Write a sequence for this structure.
RNA sequence: GCGGGCUUAGCUCAGUUGGGUAGAGCGCCAGAUUGUGGCUUUGGAGGUCGGGGGUUCGAGACCCCUAGCUCGCCCCA
């Protein structure tokens, strides 16, 4: 039997796993700097949550969800995204029941599931980190989520990314704009691609960010949301731009940016990287002022983003080459007979003093142990040889300089080598 | 879900119009070095040629089916 990981899933093997660890540590670190709290929600939820939250007409819900019935006959879904779950959780535990309640959540390396055709940067199980700020209507909250994301990318040494910014208006202004847009697209139906004719029925806003050149010509002349904003919408958008300028964050207003989830309102944004293929979005997010009420909670403004970890890993590997295993502090090479007690004592002593220690587990030759130490990039090797051991001593070798010195076992077991 | 390309050792790949026990580099293991790594050198292990079926005296190569990866579309992180 030839067993393989399911299509669209991937094993994360060392040394790549060290890159994941680094990303997770950076995200945790940035979250600490911003004062965000971690939230973890179940990997599966009642499918009704996503149908109501993400939108039944969206592709994510209508075609891409992993659905199953549990033994009690409930229809469950592996989560395709996290915003709906976070909102569900906040409502369920009354975290935003009071006026003025504010929650700043983040999540890290959280697995998501979508049944799609795999491609570079697109898998069926993939991982996201992201933030959700619940309870703040101010553009300051929008800015904070963007700044959070950018802080993560900056700390990882990113250069080639672009922040695309747009607004979709609030419910009233968007509805008006949307009907004008649909009317305009109907007038130009013949010029649209087949995909966009279908989009016009399912999700007309998405015609605007079609990659088809003919569609793009139509989209360029389409009614713009920017001309239909009400005062509140445009104030919000203008204020956000001022804040971004003040924060020194470069952006590009992209009127065709609409995003695929139904719950967005006002601000939407994407960070894209030219180092990715056609799946070029590193992170996407926006404001969803209507979602919490729609899922049965109090009317509460909210904003957040989700970022793909696999895509980040792809870009990082392009930037710095393959990941490497971090060096260890000390390798203990054993040459003497009956030295196991000494070996174990030394190893635990040095570990307790805070340095990393490894040693051979296969009874290999001295030469093989030294080669092993070299490949592990160990800074020091502690050699337990029979002659020294008879005198209660061991040899410490500095692998960079090649220098060696002999020292008592008792002293060696307290070594701080890092 | 649609269209194109690819799949040979752990990794990167070669394999001529079908012809003999399938190759290279790197990596891995061991010896040269009788208690000491990197460099060098010698040797060794490792392959159902993605899987199944077919054509043929003969298939890694040709045909069909299938799986996976990949590029674009769709969708989106």
């Amino acid at each position: 039997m030839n067993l393989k990981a399911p299509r669209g899933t991937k094993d994360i093997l060392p040394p790549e796993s060290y890159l994941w660890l680094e990303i997770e540590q950076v995200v945790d670190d940035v979250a600490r700097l911003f004062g965000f709290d971690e939230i973890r929600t179940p990997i599966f939820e009642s499918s009704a949550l996503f149908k109501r939250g993400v939108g039944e007409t969206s592709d994510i819900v209508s075609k891409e969800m992993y659905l199953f019935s549990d033994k009690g006959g409930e229809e469950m879904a592996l989560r395709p995204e996290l915003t709906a779950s976070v909102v569900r959780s906040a409502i369920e535990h009354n975290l935003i029941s009071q006026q003025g309640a504010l929650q700043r959540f983040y999540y890290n390396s959280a697995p998501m599931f979508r049944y799609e055709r795999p491609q570079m940067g697109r898998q069926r199980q993939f991982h996201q980190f992201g933030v959700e700020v619940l309870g703040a209507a101010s553009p300051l909250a929008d800015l904070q989520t963007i700044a959070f994301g950018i802080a993560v990318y900056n700390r990882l040494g990113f250069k080639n990314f672009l922040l695309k910014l747009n607004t979709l208006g609030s419910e009233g202004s968007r509805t008006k704009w949307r009907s004008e847009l649909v009317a305009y697209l109907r007038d130009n139906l013949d010029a649209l691609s087949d995909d966009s004719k279908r989009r016009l029925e399912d999700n007309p806003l998405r015609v605007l960010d079609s990659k088809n050149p003919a569609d793009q010509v139509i989209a360029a002349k389409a009614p713009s949301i920017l001309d239909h904003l009400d005062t509140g919408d445009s104030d919000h958008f203008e204020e956000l731009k001022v804040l971004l300028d003040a924060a020194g964050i470069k952006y590009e207003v992209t009127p065709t940016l609409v995003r695929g989830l139904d719950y967005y309102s006002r601000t939407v944004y994407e960070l894209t990287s030219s180092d990715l293929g056609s799946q070029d979005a590193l992170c996407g997010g926006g404001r969803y002022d209507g979602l919490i009420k729609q899922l049965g909670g109090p009317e509460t403004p909210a904003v957040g983003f989700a970022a793909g970890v696999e895509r980040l890993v792809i870009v990082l590997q392009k930037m710095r080459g393959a990941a490497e295993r971090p060096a260890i502090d000390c390798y203990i090479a054993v040459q003497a007979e009956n030295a196991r007690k000494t070996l174990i004592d030394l190893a635990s002593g040095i570990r307790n003093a805070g340095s990393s220690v490894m040693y051979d587990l296969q009874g290999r030759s001295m030469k093989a142990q030294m080669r092993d130490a070299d490949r592990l990039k160990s800074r020091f090797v502690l050699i337990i040889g029979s002659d020294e051991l008879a005198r209660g001593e061991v040899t410490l070798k500095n692998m960079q300089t090649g220098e060696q010195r002999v020292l008592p076992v008792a002293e060696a077991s307290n070594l701080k080598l890092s």
Chain A is about 35% helix and 20% strand. Chain A has two domains: 16-170+230-320, 330-412.
